[in-house]
Amino acid sequence: MPLLRRSADQPEEPRPTTAMLRAERAREWEACFPGDASEEAYRVVFLRYSPLPWPLVHAAQGDLLRLLIKRVPAELGVPALLAVTALTATHPKPEAAARAALATLLNDLRPVHARTVLATLADAWSNAERAAYDQRGQLIAAELARSARRLATAGADTEGALSTLMEQLELDDWR
User: Fold this and answer.
1) C-alpha dist (Å) from residue 172 to 84, 103, 128, 144, 169
2) Would you say which domain of life the source belongs to (predicted)?
């Protein structure tokens, strides 16, 4: 009487391979992020936010753009990138901090939660855009902290990625 062990008739389920997991994540990502994520779309959207020519923007933000282009639609990615840049502006190494935060956001959070955080960042940038530049980071941080609390309450931090992101952005009061 096999209560705790498998019977010989039941084959063991195969474990998903890395390729299978990547393919599943890519499907989830595409479902959560419809829209144009091409470099050309980023160039066009950046022109709405900044008078700087695209080659200059691309040279200055190239590492961050590489994380977003072909993954996050430009309409969401550009203002989120500007928000992350404002959040990390006072960090001793702002570019490295922004890159680490975006990498955690895009690679470690589940796609549906990443979408929520990116949308929050984009909305926060839009809301803070009219404020003085040195106040934007504080306004964005407050909105992101509220959203992170809601996500954590909904179970989005079971793997610790959301906590890691908040720590990287030095948002200690989000819980």
Assistant:
1) 16, 20, 20, 12, 9
2) Bacteria
